[in-house]
């Protein structure tokens, strides 16, 4: 029986960094769930790799078929971009295990859709001051750092991942991302123990 290992954590807790290291561990035999989006593909992106790029009409079709498990909409200059998870033929929970990154709300929606026994939460935590320092360091390296957005996300994530919300979602286990390699190894052992 397959599982979805669902990684969550506040901004700059290290989700992307840890995801890349875990997915490279071939012995864990983890697959990826490719999200769908209505945003146009960028020059370096390939359909079906970073995202499945679809239009609003296709989204509507999928919604009518009851296949859209969760959806997030973001207002951008000139429109709204939607990102969503679809129950498509690529998700084979009878035979495969998956690794995904998402929000607390999307975790709850997938859990309600697939069932409690299919979803395994991996909550990553970093002390707030250290997390802010890492976020600032990462932002400084950008061509056009956006410190306003950094502050907005920092505060928004503190609210989204409040203790109250974590309790409501039933998140108990936490992985501390202090020393990266140690955290990766702990998560790899946890996944291995909870696979099948
Ligand atoms: N254990 C660690 N020690 C020091 N730096 C780390 C550690 N883990 C991750 N980082 C660095 O912290 C920054 C944030 O990590 P990352 O981008 O993986 O976070 P994230 O949770 O995916 O953030 P976001 O949700 O904002 O995309 C990166 O610059 C990364 O290299």
Spatial order of the strands forming the largest sheet: 2-7-1-8-9
Quick one: overall form?
Answer: globular
CATH architecture annotation of the largest domain: 3-Layer(aba) Sandwich
Biggest sheet overview: 5 strands, parallel
- Average the pLDDT over all residues and give the rounded result: 95
Can you list the ligands bound to this structure? Answer: adenosine-5'-triphosphate
Distance between the termini: 5 Å
Extract low-pLDDT stretches. Answer: none
* Total E-strand runs: 9
Amount of beta strand = 15-25%
Question: How many individual helices?
Answer: 7
Percent range of helical residues: 25-40%
Output the CATH homologous superfamily of the largest domain: P-loop containing nucleotide triphosphate hydrolases
What string gives the helices and strands in order?
EHEEEHEEEHEHHHEH
Radius of gyration, taken over Cα atoms and rounded to an integer in Å: 17 Å
Strand-helix topology:
Blueprint: E1 4-9, H1 15-23, E2 30-32, E3 36-37, E4 52-53, H2 56-64, E5 68-76, E6 79-86, E7 97-101, H3 104-114, E8 119-125, H4 128-140, H5 147-160, H6 163-168, E9 174-176, H7 180-194
Parallel strand pairs: 1-7, 1-8, 2-7, 3-4, 8-9
Antiparallel strand pairs: 3-6, 5-6
Bound molecules: adenosine-5'-triphosphate.
The site of adenosine-5'-triphosphate (ATP) has 13 residues, from helix 1 and helix 4.
Protein name: Guanylate kinase
Domain Guanylate kinase-like: 2-192
GO molecular function: kinase activity
